[in-house]
Amino acid sequence: GSDMRLRLESSYSYANYYFPDGRQRIWSIPEDVLPVDVSGVEDLVYLLWQNENKSATVALFQETARLTQFAPAVPISQPRQIVATETAVYVLDMAGERLLDFHPQTGKLQAIFQLPMVTAFTASPDGSQLLFAGKDRLYFWQQPSNSRFIYGGTTLLGPQPHDTAVWQTSTPYGWPITGNFRDLTRRDLQMPGAPRHYRLGVHQGTDFYWANDTPVYAVAAGIVIRTMLDYEQPSQAAFNRRRAQNLELGYTTPDNLDFYRGQQIWVLQENGFVARYAHLGGIAWDVVEGTAVTVGQQIGTVGNSGSPVSVNSETADAHLHFELWLDDIYLGQFLRPIETRELLEQLFFPSNSNYGRFFTNSIFSTPFSYPIRQNLGGRVIFLHFLLYIKPPPSKNAP
């Protein structure tokens, strides 16, 4: 209902359902999955998560129990969003190129929408109206005359943070610390875009937790454009002043944010990206501004510089904070955590990213082991902006 409030705590694998009278329900999510989104209708709650093999699952919960009769059989890949309505549970997958319509009780596939790459969508409570947001326009389901560009705002020039295409590169990348992409943090609070309440700001990088003094390696070749060899540990008073300023302004200023990054190295890569290595415990003696570094070259060590706990300990909360920038935007800005994870895996290990497009060679090539036309009845309707494939009615359908 309109008073439903849901919270998905993706970093610690649980969800909350808050009732208008103050009561709440809490239930655990499997620890080996990546929570993506949550939606609900009345006392029914639908969770969307990604499995370790990159497939995705939609699960139905009532109170805190999972209802196994809701069992979608359609493979889901690159999940983005879920919206539950009275008549349908919609799942946006294939990185925004497809919308699946499931029956809210059984999970039976009711329809498939092929989309022109949308970033988000919403639906009316009864499921009869859909609104899609593309990169530069809105799409109204079954209202082609209302599909329109978004006018009246500021003209955006150059690459935009929400366009994942700007991060595609052929530059070879290596992992910045010991390990590989499989060691990428599973906690969204350690990913770009996560809130940082203590300083009223937003996290702009990815955290790699390893022991203090662990070697840090250049992820790609480039030229060093900033190195803080003369970094000195700030006092507690300095941290207090920065925090007071953040609280007064209501946000973290760029200067304060740079302060919290601690000792840093910035490398301008051959593809135009700038890699920032922060919270360092030390910098290699030969890494100075203007010198070239190669992929895999050790440039520093893991530390905790810039972290508030660094005042009292040189090892507490030690980790590498890694950011990737293009002009004035950072990788992960305005993106869902699942989108940022895909980008990072594509950068660091593209041959194992295991992400593809389903509708590539033909509109009927699908992840199913059978053709859509054969099993969904062949009722194909071409519309203003999308392909809509609806299964034939079934005598046994609820």
From TrEMBL:
MF (Gene Ontology): metalloendopeptidase activity
InterPro entries found in the cross-reference section: Cell_wall_metabolism_enzyme, Dup_hybrid_motif, M23ase_b-sheet_dom
CDD domains xref list: M23_peptidase
Question: Which parts of the sequence belong to the M23ase beta-sheet core domain?
Answer: 258-327
* Name by which UniProt lists this protein: M23ase beta-sheet core domain-containing protein
* Organism encoding this protein: hydrothermal vent metagenome
